[in-house]
Design brief:
28 helices; Rossmann fold; single chain; binds thiamine diphosphate; seven-stranded mixed β-sheet; binds magnesium ion; alpha/beta
Length: about 800
């Protein structure tokens, strides 16, 4: 074992001893939380518990090397680290376990995530950036294993960007790019593709990223022999080790119970990553799980007696304790006293957290009991209502569900009785419902004046000399204007840099703005998005390009699990206004005609989904998004880059409004709603329909999420009394989403004289070639006939049967 004096030459023995004891107290406190936490779940006070026991000591070491301005992207075992950097108190730990919805008391997620998911606040209560260089930072954890890795890459890359970008205002985000991004991951989770993709990308990018692998040989019940080749992740990662000829990683190994060596290792890792911008892997072995994986089961079921015995001997806290005594830092008695005091304190804090959680709920319960009691006195159903009061008042630890379900049931007994008491109860329930619903459902999107909905439209400006150009020129010139106007923007993706994207919408821009701002990446969609999330979390404005909409599926989990929930799961205390640029819709074949819009719409709520019908609209969306804080997916029309559009004079300034539809053709007989490439076919069909006397109104949705915020579609239906939604997604895909909005949110039913209809593509992926497209997706003829049939049904005399 390392001698103490080697550890830090510039620290006195007494100071070091104090430091060690302080650390030990954190380790013991954290362990007590885990032990008590499990009990709280087993006695029914909390729903589920997953704790950091057995991983305490390496986290103390990581905390020592972690500096203000640094970032963590980790997982559910890291409570000790959060406590060691002063970002998690015992009371907060239990508030999280109980799912307290008060953000002040439960800053990790205001009860939205299960305990063990950690975060620090980057934004104040008004949504403004705090000074991130002066605080410890943790990105918000997510549960999917290895889901923290793609984001980690971006958090690290941001340091590199801040170091290199000259004009960007880094004041609140970086001090010369000196910040390190620290990742943690369980040994078993390294089996995930996201882990390997991230490691490779970090080696290529050479970013200050330190990945700690907490290795306890298990992933729930599954042993390393089923997880990892050679049962040893650092062994198989050896090829990433840098050498004198090649850049790569520094790979360090250390035992998880060896406090002194852990500190050495972490300080060394921090220095390498911070000073050299070289990524580091720390494989921390010989860790344990004293209580098993989580509160869902017991590890005695799958660990041998021998393993369990080893785990209890090599428990890192126990080993640290032995080392403290061996090294004469404290006696057994002193440590026993410390442990006893901590046990008592943790218990007190736990009780305090429970009472703080329960008291307001009990108060609400008492209010309701009074209201129900008063109601029972004034109602003819007094006996039944009193029964509800009695069952409610005896619940010793009520939930809000208990309270509101009693209140709502009480109302059923006074249907038709309009009394002061029933009105009072109704009002109370409505008010409570609204307030509590907000606790669970707010902040899916930006709620400040930086919401995309607040950006005012600016129309493209044309003059007599405005040329007709290929659509891609408009995209390109607009990006040029964006990069010169917004120094914090950067774009990256496959073929994005050198050739300026496969459709040349970024042609020449790398030469103008440099290889970091207009960058090529490897073929690795998930980490392209992760890069974007991480950089957006650190104040940059990344534009992540996914080459084709079809390949968004490779990054779908990152968009859905991480990006779409960032703002929601932090209740607005972190934001990642990432713009995802892609191109899709009808072109060629199964994987280049993508229109899996229904799937996307349903999986990425929290991200705006924009489907511009041409490049001017698309460019306008980018300009709008850069003024806002909402993340977005923009799908450019793959077959639109060579179509001619007029070149606007106000590049970089015109803004397409978000959530607003556009009526592209007025009409009085029927409303046709569509978006993207298919809209062009609808416009053509509408023109042809006029020849048979059908005057269709055509509406471009433009923005699928948010959807028609002014309810203009129903206004059109009020005029035409008929609606057809035309979509190139599968039946039941985006068209079902659109129809749900029109019928359920806009109440179109009352204006309809014909059945509302959806017309979509065939249920299979689109076949290749022009004929493949014609027989897979709606064609102009299909649309014409479909609409004609609706009119035929209405008036067979005016519109005799076509076929
Ligand atoms: C994508 C995904 N698959 C499965 C799970 C369920 N799950 C949660 S933790 C876990 C095991 C993780 O083991 P390891 O990475 O070694 O971390 P440890 O819990 O041992 O610290 C699994 C399978 C999940 N959360 N996410
Ligand atoms: Mg494990």
């Amino acid at each position: 074992m390392q001698s103490l004096t080697d550890l830090k030459d510039n620290i006195s023995f007494d100071d070091f001893k104090a430091e060690v004891l302080k650390d030990y107290k954190v380790a013991v406190t954290s362990r007590e939380c885990s032990l008590l936490g499990r009990r709280e779940v087993l006695t029914g006070k909390a729903k589920f518990g997953i704790f950091g026991d057995g991983k305490e000591v390496p986290q103390l070491a990581m905390a020592k090397a972690f500096k203000k301005g640094d970032w963590r992207s980790g997982y559910y075992r890291d409570q000790t680290f959060m406590m060691a950097i002063g970002e998690l108190t015992v009371e907060q730990f239990f508030a999280g376990l109980y799912a307290n919805t008060n953000l002040e008391l439960e800053p990790m997620s205001a009860g939205r995530q299960m305990g063990g998911h950690f975060v620090t606040h980057s934004l104040d209560e008004n949504g403004n950036w705090k000074d991130l260089t002066k605080q410890y930072n943790s990105s918000a954890d997510i549960s999917p294993t290895a889901g923290q890795m793609p984001r980690l890459l971006g958090l690290a890359q941001a340091s590199k960007i801040f170091k290199e970008f000259e004009n960007v205002n880094a004041a609140k985000f970086s001090v010369n790019g000196n910040e390190v991004a620290w990742g943690t991951i369980g040994n078993a989770s390294t089996s995930e593709g996201l882990f390997f993709e991230t490691i490779n990308a970090a080696g290529v990018l050479q970013v200050p990223m330190i990945t700690s692998i907490w290795d306890d040989e298990y992933g729930i019940s599954v042993h390393a022999k089923h997880q990892t080749t050679k049962e040893n992740i650092s062994e198989i990662l050896k090829g990433f080790q840098r050498d004198k000829d090649n850049k790569g990683f520094e790979i360090l190994r250390v035992k998880g119970w060896d406090y002194a060596n852990l500190i050495e290792t972490y300080i060394e890792a921090g220095t390498i990553a911070r000073n050299e911008h070289v990524p580091v892997i720390i494989h921390v072995t010989e860790l344990t799980q004293p209580q098993g994986h989580s509160t869902s089961g017991s590890h005695e079921r799958y660990k041998s007696g021998e393993r369990l015995k080893w785990e209890s001997e090599y428990d890192c806290n126990k080993k640290m304790r032995e080392w403290i005594i061996e090294s004469n830092f404290a006696t057994n008695e002193t440590l026993t006293n410390i442990e006893r005091t901590i046990k008592r304190e943790v218990k007190q804090q736990k009780t305090k957290a429970w009472n703080t959680f329960l008291d307001p709920i009990k108060k609400e319960r008492n209010e309701l009991v009074t209201l129900i009691h008063e109601l029972s006195k004034s109602s003819s159903n007094s006996v039944f209502i009193s029964k509800l009061k009695e069952t409610l008042e005896v619940i010793s630890e009520p939930t809000r569900k208990d309270i509101l379900s009693h209140g709502r049931k009480a109302l059923r007994y006074v249907i038709g009785e309009s009394t002061l008491e029933s009105t009072k109860l109704k009002n109370w329930i409505n008010e409570r419902f609204k307030a509590i619903q907000h606790e669970f459902s707010s902040h899916l999107y930006c709620e400040t004046d930086k919401s995309a909905l607040h950006v005012t439209e600016v129309k493209p400006a044309y003059n007599d000399t405005s040329e007709l150009v290929d659509g891609r020129i408009i995209i390109r010139d607009n990006f040029d204007a964006i990069f010169s106007k917004h120094p914090e923007t950067l774009v990256f993706g496959e073929d994005t840099g050198n050739i300026g994207d496969v459709n040349q919408g970024l042609e020449g821009l790398q030469a103008k703005y440099g290889e970091l701002r207009v960058a090529d990446t490897g073929i690795r969609e998930a980490t392209i998005i992760g890069q974007g999330i991480g950089m957006a979390l650190r104040g940059l404005r990344p534009i992540a390009e996914i080459q084709y909409l079809d390949y968004v599926l490779y990054a779908l989990n990152v968009i859905s699990d991480d990006l779409a929930t960032t703002h929601y799961r932090t209740k607005g205390r972190q934001k990642a206004p990432l713009i995802i640029r892609t191109r899709g819709h009808r072109l060629e074949g199964i994987w280049h005609s993508g229109s899996q819009m229904g799937g996307l719409l349903n999986l990425i709520r929290g991200v705006l989904v924009l489907v511009p019908r041409n490049m001017t609209k698309a460019a306008g969306f980018y300009n709008t998004l850069l003024e806002s804080d909402d993340p977005a997916l923009v799908v450019e029309c793959l077959n639109g880059y060579r179509l001619k559009e007029r070149l606007p004079a106000n590049m970089g300034n015109f803004k397409t409004p978000i959530g607003v539809v556009e009526t592209v053709k007025d009409g009085s007989d029927i409303t046709l709603v569509s978006y993207g490439s298919t809209l062009r076919l609808v416009e053509e069909a509408a023109k042809q329909l006029t020849t048979v006397g059908i005057d269709a109104e055509v509406i471009d949705i433009q923005s699928l999420v948010p959807f028609d915020i002014h309810h203009d579609i129903v206004k059109s239906i009020a005029k035409t009394n008929r609606i057809v939604v035309i979509d190139e997604d599968v039946p039941g895909g985006a068209s079902a989403y659109i129809m749900d909005k029109i019928l359920n949110e806009q109440n179109a039913f009352e204006f309809l004289d014909s059945a509302p209809k959806t017309m979509s593509a065939n249920a299979h992926r689109p076949a290749y070639g022009n004929d493949g497209d014609y027989f897979s997706k709606p064609s102009t003829e299909d649309i014409f006939e479909f609409v004609y049939d609706v009119m035929h049904e209405l008036s067979p005399i005016d519109f005799p049967k076509l076929t």
